[in-house]
Automatic annotation (TrEMBL):
PROSITE patterns hit by this protein: WD_REPEATS_2 (PS50082), WD_REPEATS_REGION (PS50294)
CC annotations in GO: cytosolic [4Fe-4S] assembly targeting complex
Organism: Paramecium pentaurelia
Ranges: WD repeats: 290-322, 335-366
Alphabetically ordered keywords of this record: WD repeat
Signal peptide: none
The name this protein goes by in its record: Uncharacterized protein
């Protein structure tokens, strides 16, 4: 509700005569100038007592009553206007979704068109030695005949796909790029070589309808075969079942947990300590406690090629830990540079690049030479960075944060800087983000019952949201517990609110939530082993480190 607020400070009110005494009365004489209506006790002695006066507190009370009534009317007006604008926003958002859907359909047609042309080229690339030898001696013109047939086939293919493309393109005839698209389509219909007009008319006018029907029939058959083959190969349903004997009590809060590459060691950030556990045949046993951090440990990541792991903390530092010959862990190097809490870390495959995100709104790139050094800082986020993910090709990073912004950051080649190539605005704080493949990532926003899927447009190389995955959430807590995608099992792990959602990416590209584990609290942290065999969590309700194992149903 809007509340009236007086811009002046009552304590600073003074009479016009400069007595430096508190104002207690207001003269209601309309003939008096505005600055002479405020009276202090000394002013009252010099003022005609018959003049109409009201106490300052009373007059302020009357004014505030009037302002409250006025604000009620203002609020009603604003509320009505907001409803209209919000309705307008909803309609425009629907329009946006429809436009994106239609453009994606156009892109799909073009990609199939491209594939069709490539297949035709591949078919004509094959030849018989004996036939070609015969042509050389008997009919030297037959090569040209074959080429003419090939060109006609290309023409027919282009006519077919143009008939699919044009109706959808017409929806965008007000766009500046529409005419350019029509020009390119005309060029395709005229052919890749200079035919004479009679040949063009023959292809376009005489055979057009017959060939469109024929090719459409073939294309539909191929599409059906593709769909049938996709559905005939299904990954088995699964769930994760708790290993009761593996659960251990842990009273200290664990904000981060991670397995090493062979699932023989796990580490847990318990307040400022890092506890190291041996994991063997489903049983975990504490073997060491590391006390170097000065505040909560928020992130933990194991290296795969070496016996090392990295940690990030509320104390603003990143630490590299190494296992010695006695199988004990010690701090190898401290990375200082951030001015805020370390919230997320990712490591590249070569293990010579660490990327970190922080409450200081920055993303830092640390490279390994003789030791780890900060090479670059990205400052495009305006608020805390919550999530980071590196694609499989290792040349693209996606980030999200409290500023409701997604950054796509790319590296064009070795020894070059990382550059922000795209910014995507979203409706809420981005909590977790994860690349599924080089051209697709998923995003969880705070308190949302769905995960958004973003895919790269093959034409303009820009990412756009293409769909949502329905999941269970409830009220979300911390931004920790990053999303993970297990490529070998096609499983996306996503913590959302009080739930851990386990989502299968099917071979037809669809996402299906197979299991949602409810923990009864949003103070829930954990991770998954590299092979997806084990899910490890700590939650406030049980105060246990729990391990669950993958089972096919």
């Amino acid at each position: 509700m809007l509340k009236p607020k007086m811009i002046e400070n009552q304590k600073e009110f003074q009479c016009s005569k400069g007595h430096n005494l508190p104002v207690i009365t207001v003269a209601l004489d309309p003939k008096l100038p505005r600055d002479q209506r405020l009276l202090c006790t000394e002013c009252l002695d010099d003022t005609d007592q018959d003049a109409k006066m009201v106490g300052l507190k009373k007059i302020i009370s009357l004014i505030e009553e009037n302002q409250v009534k006025k604000m009620e009317k203002v609020e009603n007006i604003i509320t009505n206007q907001l409803k209209l604008v919000e309705s307008l926003h909803g309609i425009v958002d629907q329009m946006k979704s429809y436009v994106i859907q239609q453009l994606n359909q156009l892109i799909t047609i073009m990609m199939d068109w491209i594939q069709n042309l490539k297949q035709q080229g591949s078919q004509y690339s094959q030849y018989s030695f004996y036939e070609e030898l015969e042509i050389m001696f008997i009919n030297q013109n037959k090569t040209d005949d074959h080429l003419q047939l090939f060109i006609k086939d290309i023409q027919k293919t282009n006519i077919c796909w143009t008939s699919k493309f044009n109706p959808k393109l017409e929806q965008f005839n007000q766009f500046e790029q529409y005419n350019k698209c029509k020009e390119l389509l005309s060029c395709l219909l005229l052919g890749s070589q200079n035919f004479n007009q009679s040949e063009q008319k023959q292809v376009i006018n005489i055979e057009q309808n017959k060939e469109i029907e024929c090719l459409n029939s073939k294309l539909n058959i191929k599409e059906q075969q593709t769909i049938q083959s996709t559905h005939s190969i299904n990954l088995k349903p699964f769930n994760y079942q708790i290993i009761q004997q593996s659960s251990i009590s842990q009273s200290d809060w664990c904000y981060a947990i991670a397995f090493d590459n062979d699932c023989s060691t796990l580490v847990a950030g318990c307040y400022s300590k890092i506890k190291v556990y041996e994991f063997k045949q489903g049983i975990i046993k504490e073997i060491q406690t590391l006390n170097e951090h000065k505040d909560f440990v928020y992130t933990l990541n194991f290296m795969k090629k070496s016996k090392q792991f990295i940690s990030g903390s509320v104390d603003k530092s990143i630490r590299i830990w190494k296992q010695n010959q006695n199988y004990l862990w010690s701090s190898l190097q401290i990375l200082n540079g951030h001015n805020g809490v370390i919230t997320c870390l990712v490591l590249n495959i070569n293990e010579d690049l660490i990327i970190s995100g922080s409450y200081d709104n920055t993303i830092k790139f640390w490279i390994k030479k003789n030791e780890w050094l900060c090479q670059q800082t990205i400052t495009d986020h305006s608020r805390s960075v919550y999530g980071l993910s590196l694609n499989q090709q290792q040349n693209r990073i996606v980030s999200c944060g409290n500023d409701k912004l997604i950054l796509i950051i790319e590296n064009q080649g070795q020894n070059t800087e990382w550059k922000v190539i795209q910014k995507i605005n979203i409706n809420n704080c981005g909590y977790r983000v994860c690349f599924i493949d080089n051209n697709m990532f998923t995003l969880s926003q705070r308190d949302q019952e769905q995960i958004s899927v973003f895919e790269m447009n093959n034409i303009n190389k820009q990412f756009t949201k293409t769909r949502d995955i329905t999941i269970k959430c409830g009220s979300d807590g911390e931004c920790l517990f990053p999303q993970q995608y297990i490529n070998s099992k096609c499983i996306l792990l996503s913590k959302n609110g009080e739930y851990v959602n386990l989502i299968r990416k099917k071979q037809n590209g669809e996402f299906l939530t197979e299991q949602s584990i409810h923990f009864g609290t949003n103070y829930l942290f954990g991770g998954m082993s590299e092979d997806g065999q084990y899910l490890i969590t700590w939650d406030k309700q049980s105060h246990q480190i729990q391990i669950r194992k993958y089972h096919e149903l």
